[in-house]
Amino acid sequence: MSKSISHLADTQMPLNWKQMQRIGLAIKPVDSTGKFDERGNEYDLGNELAGIAGLRRVDVDPKKSFNYKITAYKKGVRDSRNLFTAATLKGGPISPEAIVDAYINANRALYETNRELYLDIEAAKTLGMKGDALYDNMDNRGERRAYNAISDGEFRPLTISRDLEGLFETKAREIGVSNPFFQASMVIDRIQNVLSRVSLKGDLFPDIKNPLSSELLPDLVGQANQMLNNNPANAAMATAPTTGFIGQGNVNIDPVTRLTAAEEIYLDPMEKLYTKNKRTRTV
User: Fold this and answer.
1) For residue 197, what is the DSSP state?
2) How far apart are CA 71 and CA 252, in angstroms?
3) 260: Cβ contacts below 8 Å, ≥ 6 apart
4) Between the chain's N and C termini, which has fewer beta carbons within 10 Å?
5) What's the burial of 198, exposed, middle or buried (CB within 10 Å: 0-12/13-18/19+)?
6) Alpha-carbon distance 79 to 141, whole Å?
7) Phi/psi at 69 (nearest 5 deg)?
């Protein structure tokens, strides 16, 4: 608590030591190198004196601020990649579905990082920073290609390197399972193709459904029940004569095929198998 109070006193009270330092630099001769602080900033005496009354003008330096934005961008890209690897390369078995889920989540985070820098670039231009200066800043930080894409509003989705693919193969071999990335990669390629057309100019990250998700798999039993309920064979069975090989009400069922004559005619192979298995369990 005492440290917090001391910090507030140092920075907020009139004539604190930082203000005194700036005033000391401002009163030095114009041609003196001593007018500049360690960061190369130069101070105006009139502006610093106005700061005593809380009226000090603070100049905006978009170039300096943009350097911090580049640092945040690079960290965001690393975090997005780590989000994928942390979820998929723990060492134990993992399903292709989980790999695709991790890829979608990592790209969602990467999109937010790219869109944030796109907005920062637009803001820097509004504050007077030229495109050449923005390009040079990004180029100096090894992000020339990123600047070309982001400044145009283009999103570049996460790519899976060959080294990363090799890790999936190695870990699968170590635990004696098939490589789950093989199946996942076919879906990832399609998702990557979709995401490469997404724009950064709006909050437009698509709601991508994982086609390998068990929630999206067809309910085959439910479909078979529906087909049976809607099939004309049911009506024929209801009116079938009362003679039969297996006594089950008024239905004439063959003891070998376990189907009625009407079912043999109207049902397709899948429906026949489902009906036969159902009767076998109930007889």
Assistant:
1) T
2) 79
3) 233, 236, 237, 240, 251, 252, 253, 254
4) N
5) buried
6) 18
7) -65, -40
- CB count within 10 Å of CB 180 equals 20
* Beta-bridge partners for 36: 42
The answer to whether the predicted template modeling score (pTM) of the entire model surpasses 0.85 is: no
pLDDT tens digits for the chain (283 residues)?
Answer: 554 444 444 444 455 556 555 555 555 555 555 555 555 455 554 454 454 444 455 555 677 788 899 999 999 999 999 999 999 998 889 999 999 999 999 999 999 999 999 999 999 998 888 989 999 999 999 999 999 999 999 999 999 999 999 999 999 999 999 999 999 999 999 999 999 999 999 878 999 999 998 765 454 445 545 554 555 545 544 454 444 434 444 457 777 777 777 676 666 666 776 677 677 655 5
